[in-house]
């Protein structure tokens, strides 16, 4: 690896490593196929890049020598181009995957909890309905995770993706338990057992938490 490539390696965003990771499994894939795989695997425990992001990262990876592509014919459009990881790309990806310092802490951005946090501006019945809708979506996602797990179990090379999907299954089950507990908390708040200060009243201190 040249010094220029080593410098660029440190600047690659997580999306680039995710796309390169999709290429690290056996076979060549088009950008569209990579998007389909991300939608049926990565999104359950990380996120799925947009198709435009995937193609942008594929171009970047090619420029770095981490990926290579071929077209079925000279007249084929770019969408038909098939990509594969190179030896340099596999070595760089292995180094990145082994560097736990770059993993960072998990980031939680829970839209439902943001609305519960603002529950003093909403009606109790509406908050409960939002939690129930969230549970319905989580059940649907859980079914999709299990479908992906069944598919991964059929391919020996996908043993480690199957482990990540199994973790995602447990995470969705835990999310359902948390939602059930939240419904109980909302019921208690509704009866006054844990109700926040009414609008217009100033609680002790400037914020609901120390600091």
Characterize the structure shown.
This protein has 211 residues and is mostly helical. The chain contains eight helices and two strands; from the N terminus they run ααααββαααα. The protein has helices spanning 3-11, 14-23, 31-39, 51-64, 87-97, 111-117, 124-152, 159-190, and strands at residues 67-70, 82-85. A two-stranded antiparallel sheet has the order 1-2. Helix 2 (14-23) packs across helix 4 (51-64), helix 3 packs across helix 4 and helix 7 (124-152) runs antiparallel to helix 8 (159-190). It starts with a helix and ends in a 21-residue tail after the last helix.
What is the topological layout?
Layout: H1 3-11, H2 14-23, H3 31-39, H4 51-64, E1 67-70, E2 82-85, H5 87-97, H6 111-117, H7 124-152, H8 159-190
Antiparallel strand pairs: 1-2
Helix pairs in contact: 2-4, 3-4, 7-8
Mean pLDDT: 86
Distance between the termini: 48 Å
Order of helices and strands: HHHHEEHHHH
The helix fraction, in percent, is 55-70%
Secondary-structure content class: mainly alpha
Q: List low-confidence stretches.
A: 1-9, 195-199
Question: How is the biggest beta sheet arranged?
Answer: 2 strands, antiparallel
Radius of gyration over C-alpha positions, nearest whole angstrom: 23 Å
Q: How many distinct helices?
A: 8
The total of beta strands comes to 2
What spatial order of strands do you see in the largest sheet?
1-2
């Amino acid at each position: 690896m040249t010094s220029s490539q080593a410098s660029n390696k440190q600047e690659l965003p997580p999306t680039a490593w995710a796309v390169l990771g999709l290429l690290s499994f056996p076979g060549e894939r088009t950008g569209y196929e990579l998007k389909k795989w991300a939608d049926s695997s990565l999104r359950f425990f990380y996120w799925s890049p947009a198709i435009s992001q995937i193609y942008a990262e594929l171009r970047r990876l090619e420029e770095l020598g981490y990926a290579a592509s071929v077209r079925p014919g000279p007249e084929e459009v770019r969408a038909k181009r098939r990509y594969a990881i190179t030896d340099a790309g596999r070595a760089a990806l292995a180094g990145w995957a082994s560097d736990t310092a770059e993993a960072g802490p998990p980031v939680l951005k829970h839209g439902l909890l943001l609305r519960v946090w603002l529950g003093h501006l909403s009606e109790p019945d509406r908050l409960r309905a939002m939690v129930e809708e969230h549970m319905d979506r989580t059940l649907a996602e859980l079914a999709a995770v299990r479908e992906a797990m069944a598919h991964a179990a059929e391919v020996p090379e996908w043993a480690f993706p199957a482990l990540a999907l199994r973790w995602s299954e447990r995470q969705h089950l835990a999310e359902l338990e948390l939602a059930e507990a939240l419904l109980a908390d909302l019921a208690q708040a509704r009866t006054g057992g844990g109700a926040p200060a009414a609008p217009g009243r100033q609680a002790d201190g400037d914020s609901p938490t120390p600091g």
